[in-house]
Amino acid sequence: MRLLVTGGAGFIGSHFVKRMLAASDDVVILDKFTYAGNPANLPAESECYRGDIAVQEDVEQIGAVDAIVNFAAETHVDRSIHGPEDFVRTDVLGTLVLLQLARELSARFVQVSTDEVYGDIEPGWSSREDDRLRPSSPYSASKAGGDLQVLAAVRTFGVNASVTRGSNTYGPNQYPEKVLPLFTTNALDGEPLPLYGDGRQVRDWLHVEDHCAGIELVLREGQPGDVYNVAANEEHENVELTNLVIDHLGVDRSLIRNVDDRPGHDRRYSLDTTKLRALGWTPRREWEDGVRATIDWYRDNRDWWEPIKRSDGFREFYERQYAARLAT
Ligand code: NAD
Ligand code: TYD
Question: Which CATH class is domain 2-170+204-230?
Answer without folding.
Answer: alpha beta
